[in-house]
Amino acid sequence: MKIALGSDHAGFKLKEALKGFLISKDFKVLDEGTYSEDSVDYPDFAKKVANDIKSKNADFGILICGTGIGMSIAANRIKGIRAALCWFPEMARLARLHNDANVLVLPGRLISSELAQWITEVFLSERFEGGRHEKRVKKIEEMDK
After folding, report:
1. What is the DSSP string of 89-129?
2. 2-143: which CATH topology?
3. 3-state secondary structure of 76
4. d(CA 78, CA 6)
5. pTM to 2 decimals?
6. pLDDT grade, residue 145 (50/70/90)?
7. Which residues are CB-contacts of 19 (< 8 A; sequence separation ≥ 6)?
8. Where in the chain are the domains?
9. Active site (catalytic) residues
C-alpha cells in the first residue's frame, strides 16, 4: 500500500516521525513535503497529496498541519477527496468505515507522535462498510458536480 504524506512547517516533525513509522510497517511512502520547519503554505501540500490520490499514484493520503483544520479544508476542496481530521483512533475507524475517507488529517501541534501512530494504524487497517453508508458517500460525490 502506498501512502502520500504531506505537511506544512507546523506538521513537519510529526510527518517525519510518521514517515519512519510507516516505512517500518512496510508501507511505501511518497513524501510530498515540506522538508523543513521553514514557513510554507499548507494548501500547496494538501493539493499535492490530494492529486496523488486522484491520479491513483497513492492509495491513501496523510496530511498534517498545526491544528489539522487548514489541511482538512484545503484537501476537501479537491473533487473525490474525503479528508477526515482525526484526534482519536475511534474517529479514524469511523471515518474509514462510514465515510470512506481517503485522506487522514492530523493536528501536528496538538497530539503526540505515539497517538498519531495509533490513529494512523487504525485508519489504514479499516475498510469501508458500504451498505447504508454507500448512499451517503454518493450524495457527497454528487455535491462535487
Report:
1. HHHHHHHHHHH---EEEEETTTS-HHHHHHHHHHHHH----
2. Ribose 5-phosphate Isomerase B; Chain: A, (3.40.1400)
3. coil
4. 15
5. 0.97
6. confident
7. 5, 29, 31
8. 2-143
9. 65, 98
